[in-house]
Design goal:
By secondary structure, this protein is mostly helical. Helices cover 59% and strands 0% of the residues. It is built from 4 helices and no strands. Helix 1 runs antiparallel to helix 2 and helix 1 packs parallel to helix 4.
Length: 78
């Protein structure tokens, strides 16, 4: 999470919050949402991503990354 990357710390925390929300780990989701907020991400954006990735107000160039991590993420059966 903190190594060298072309993604900013805020972008990485946003991804982590999103993935943690998808895999229903509320502890990690909440923690990454707090860190994302500390790096300037509005918690409403995390909530919007959880509701609908395609309509969330995130940069269009970032949506393919989020769609990809969604495919990679194990989700518990509902």
């Amino acid at each position: 999470m903190r190594g060298e990357s072309k993604l900013s710390a805020s972008e990485r925390e946003l991804i982590a919050a999103y993935v943690s929300g998808l895999n229903a780990c509320s502890y990690c989701h909440d923690a990454h949402t707090v860190f994302a907020r500390a790096y300037g991400i509005d918690p409403k954006l995390v909530k919007a991503l959880m509701e609908d990735l395609h309509s969330a107000p995130v940069d269009q160039r970032f949506k393919p990354i989020l769609a990809y991590v969604k495919k990679l993420t194990y989700r518990l059966p509902v």
